[in-house]
Amino acid sequence: MLESLPRKVDFDQRGTSWCRFLAASISEMNAPTLKAHALADIDPIERARQLRPMIEAAAPAIEQSRSLPQELRAALHGAGLFRLLLPRKFNGEEVEPATFVAAVEEIAKSDASTAWCVAQGSGCSMAAAYLEPDVAREVFGSADAVLAWGPVGPNARATAVEGGYRVTGTWLYASGSRHSEWLGGHSPLVEAKGEHCLGPDGKPAERTVLFRKRDAVVEDVWQVMGLKGTGSDTYTVTDMFIPARYSFTRESADDRRENGPLYRFTTYQIYGASFAGVALGIARATLDAIIQVASTKIPMLASKPLRENAVVQSQVAMAEAKWQSSRAFLMQTLEQMWLTASRGESFSMQQRAALRLAAVHAIHQSKEVVGTAYHLAGGSAIFESQAFERRLRDIHAVTQQVQSQFSNFEVAGQVLLGLPSASKLI
């Protein structure tokens, strides 16, 4: 017979009380009173860790509804986890990227979709560093503020008109859009006749425009195999007028209004690192699960627990080494870049390539770790009542997005080999 795995952990008294406090506190907060210093006594990673029992318990509902439950969203907001990359002047925390990635990783140990939504929404919140202050407060001022967007749409375009832009486009993969009030659209700039406008560097110019979700047509397309709870829907606007003040150019030094070291990182870099954090969290939880299972499970036709098997012993050891080394590479790279940014210096090409390499490497090493643990768990792993199969689906969904593609290795390799790749590194 297949042996059942341990039941999901119940809330302990401390975790239950803390999670209920967070869920309740959001209703008492408003923009003026929501202050980052109110949470400063609790490390962001510890805040994420304290929410793990609540997230774990919500995982089945997250899968079924393909969105985050309201109570969980309230707790995430109460813990300030959507405001870690927001400028301090807008009641954000501007945490070091390595700290942010570790917090995302902690959440992903319980549910990858929740971690992905925090990573995506936090990356979007970096837009506040580029917006006029009153617009940033309008978008991010509420205690439960979330901005969502997807990559540049195939038909997206913005045409400059008096006072702003006329925008038409469809954007995909808007993770977290189901609990956001605002959406963004990355839009190539075009002339009235449709020709692409070029920027000072000779490349096609782009503008990111912000608008309320109620003004867009949102299509529920998120019937997928993994990361189901991200609700990454598709949205469309047609010939919408966007005032210029509700737009900015990503990573533009001319548009950037914040001088803190965090905003020397691009959103693409933050996304790559934080999605690696999601992968590392999935892998850590899956590896921990097989270590626990191996102590008690006796496989069919065997007489001893899994941990007595020499193959299992070597496979677990190699998986541990893959996880530890890939995580260390990512964190070391982020910390070194933080020191560079804190000195007010620009990142070198080698540093940018290293971050690209560290992030994609961590994702693929995490996939291998999950695959190993899933296989070692045997038939028990295929049951929906266990987290092995969900984590296997989630890690494979993570590897399908752009920051995980093998072309990232190619770009990093070109830099290592001294080839001209500056135009490809974002």
Summarize the structure.
It contains 12 helices and 8 strands. It has 426 residues and is an alpha+beta fold.
Structural class: alpha+beta
Tally the helices: what do you get? Answer: 12
Overall number of structural domains: 3
Query: What oligomeric state best describes the polypeptide chains here?
Result: single chain
What name does the CATH topology of the largest domain carry?
Butyryl-CoA Dehydrogenase, subunit A, domain 3
Can you tell me the overall shape? globular
* Helix residue percentage: 40-55%
Label the CATH architecture of the largest domain: Up-down Bundle
Helix and strand sequence = HHHHHHHEEEEEEEEHHHHH
Portion in beta strands: 5-15%
Q: In angstroms, what is the radius of gyration?
A: 22 Å
- Span from first to last CA? 52 Å
Task: Write a structural description.
With 426 residues, this protein is an alpha+beta fold. The protein has three domains: 128 residues, Butyryl-Coa Dehydrogenase, subunit A, domain 1; 102 residues, Butyryl-CoA Dehydrogenase, subunit A, domain 2 (Beta Barrel), CATH 2.40.110.10; 160 residues, Butyryl-CoA Dehydrogenase, subunit A, domain 3 (Up-down Bundle), CATH 1.20.140. Helix content is 45%, strand content 12%. It has twelve helices and eight strands. The strands form two sheets. Strands 1-4-5-8 form a four-stranded mixed sheet, covered by helices on one side. Strand 2 and strand 3 form a beta hairpin. The N and C termini lie far apart (52 Å).
Question: Main attributes?
Answer:
single chain, 426 residues, alpha+beta, Butyryl-CoA Dehydrogenase, subunit A, domain 2, 8 strands, disordered N terminus
